[in-house]
Amino acid sequence: MPSDDSLLAIDCNDLTFAWRDGDEPVLEGINLQLDRGDCCLLMGANGAGKSTFLRILAGKRLTKTRNCRILGQDVFMNPPGGVVYLGTEWSNNPVVRSDIVVSHFLDSVGGYRHRARRDRLLQILDVDLDWHMHEISDGERRRVQLCMGLMTEWDVLLLDEVTVDLDVLVRADLIDFLKNESQTRGATILYATHIFDGLGEFPNKICHIQLGKTPRALVHWKPNQADLFKVALEWLREDRILRREKEEAKGRMRGPKTDSSYKDAQTFFEKYDYSH
């Protein structure tokens, strides 16, 4: 599709965000434009700002400037319909770990109104409607979340590491489903992940977030044009070198500290002796 502003699914221009006024920005000058039907991977190291960016796009964080739009609408002040955000924090909600049967849980969020898509996803994700939410594994609970979030027809899907708990077969079937949604319905997917196996044919674009910035132009990706894992590895090595340089310039360093206040086991246990 042509990159016309009226057709853009996601349009983010020069986004800068800090947790508090005066703090160093966690996102700075972020730019991302996606057309309808794009499947975009969001790559970056832990702490690069991927999750924060996705939550802003989902309308869950207020920014000072109005420079993020989805389907032509401001993501916070006038959020559009048809946007689904799925993140890892969902599994920490006590409700989804309570003694509720999966069929009742899905019906409580409208599953009965989307029976055909729900049943298709139940098969793809290998979900048992008779499971009790408090008895199943984290991976099975994640499958229920995906079924719940994907059973309505969405226009834009924001995924934040939600496939990390899935086994390789379920994950592969899910990726096929998502790719089909983009091809047949023109749905747009922005997917942050650190697992690149089997994704060589999934994206048509790749966005790199490096220490809160987008250091390179959006990569237009052709199926298996290169080893996706090696591309990610190269970028992450680059990210780590830059991060270490910045930390050293501020007098900070990760890993063991040579000037520790305790040098031996006795000193350590005396310092952290809570028996009294």
UniProtKB/TrEMBL annotation:
Pfam families per the record? ABC_tran
Q: Where is the ABC transporter domain?
A: 10-236
Top-rank taxon, per record: Eukaryota
Signal peptide coordinates: none
InterPro entries in the cross-refs: AAA+_ATPase (IPR003593), ABC_transporter-like_ATP-bd (IPR003439), P-loop_NTPase (IPR027417)
- What GO MF terms are annotated? ATP binding; ATP hydrolysis activity
Q: Which UniProt keywords apply?
A: ATP-binding, Nucleotide-binding
Gene3D superfamilies documented for this protein? P-loop containing nucleotide triphosphate hydrolases
What is the recorded name of this protein? CCR4-NOT regulatory complex component
